[in-house]
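Notes from the 1:1 (GR / supervisor)

We went over the backlog. Supervisor wanted to see one worked example end to end before approving the batch request, so GR pasted a single chain during the call. The sequence is below; no edits were made to it. Supervisor asked that the structure be written out right there so they could see what the output format looks like.
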Amino acid sequence: MHLLGSTFCCEVPDEWREIKQPGYVIAAAPSSSLGFTPNVVLRESIVEGRPDALAAISQANLRSVAEIPGTVVVHVEAVERHGEEHRRIWMLTPVAPEEIHGNILCLLIVQDLVVTDGAIAELTLTLPLIEWTPGDHHQAILDTLRALPPAERNAPATTSTIPEVTLDEWATARDGAPREDLSVLTPPNLMLQAEPLVLSDATATTFFAHAEQRVFTPVTGQVRDELAAAGLVEQDGSPTGAGFWYIDHLLSGTGWNITVATPTPHVFRFWVTDATTIFTAPHPDEDGATLLAYCPSNDLFRILLGWVTATPAWPMDVHLELSGQQLQDKLERDTLTFTGSDDAAEFAKHPWTLLSLRNSADETFLNWIHTSSRGQAAAWFEPTLRNANDLITVRQHIDAPLWLQLMSTIAENQ
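Structure output shown during the call:
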């Protein structure tokens, strides 16, 4: 079905229903999932014909994300469709539909922007993250956004002012087109299902050590007092109902941890069941304290990607092969003892931090290098005859962003 605006159009499934509103048009799926109906919204306006108009409006949209509580922007890309450059912004945001009793549902929101002949279109796709798979029919809607033939166009009813833009000079020079500086994004305050419990590191370690025994040995002394204050044990040191709930998740859930290899390692531990996930993380503001919390499992990836600060960067094609010593020099001292070309050279200019995803058996499933402004790159060692020098591969692939690798690795090994 054609979804027609004044200047632009797109294609949506025939069974979707159209709703016209002043200044925009909506198409919605025939049924909801977990209390939310997948939909697209097409907005249009007249804009000044500046060469950096697309970059400026994209950056303004990124700045406005800070006003949406708990929203994590995971990816920004420039794509070519129908002879025009588009900007595509991917983000995860929490909502709490009444149909699921106020529990958080994680939504995937993808904005596709395009400027044609003094008009801009913003096509926004929104659906539950658990309903999306890469390249599916929902995502295909975005690929159909295009300008109508000139004879069929009408001027949009609204006019937008293009703000000033700060460009990423390196990415702009590389691509030969304006690329907005993505560092305007600020890390979000992650909205959780409930306020986390705050425990001392020692008390959290003791609680989980006792829980892993399957027969919980009552705790005593200061540990008991702290756990009792948190509502996890009774005064006799045995678990409360809430304590048993956390213990059951630890014993029945699939256990994972993400370790940030800093001088004092930071570890995010989580145990996933079908419905809910419990997790622990270092307290961001209190040394020696641990946060214990839970989330609906559909919202896990938003929290994970926010915690590892997987902030978007312009996609790069990075391929490096390093010795263990070269990698150690870069990680520990930010010393370059290797050379790269093009994207790899730019990636190597920035400080690196190593993160690892492991399961409860301490098997490593994914290692990656994090930078503050040039994204992430997977890192692995492959012991083969072709790798006689035991080199470690560092790879950032334009078509396989790290956030997708992390999500798929966990989902496929549940």
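Supervisor's comment: DSSP finds ten helices and 20 strands in the chain.
Batch request approved.
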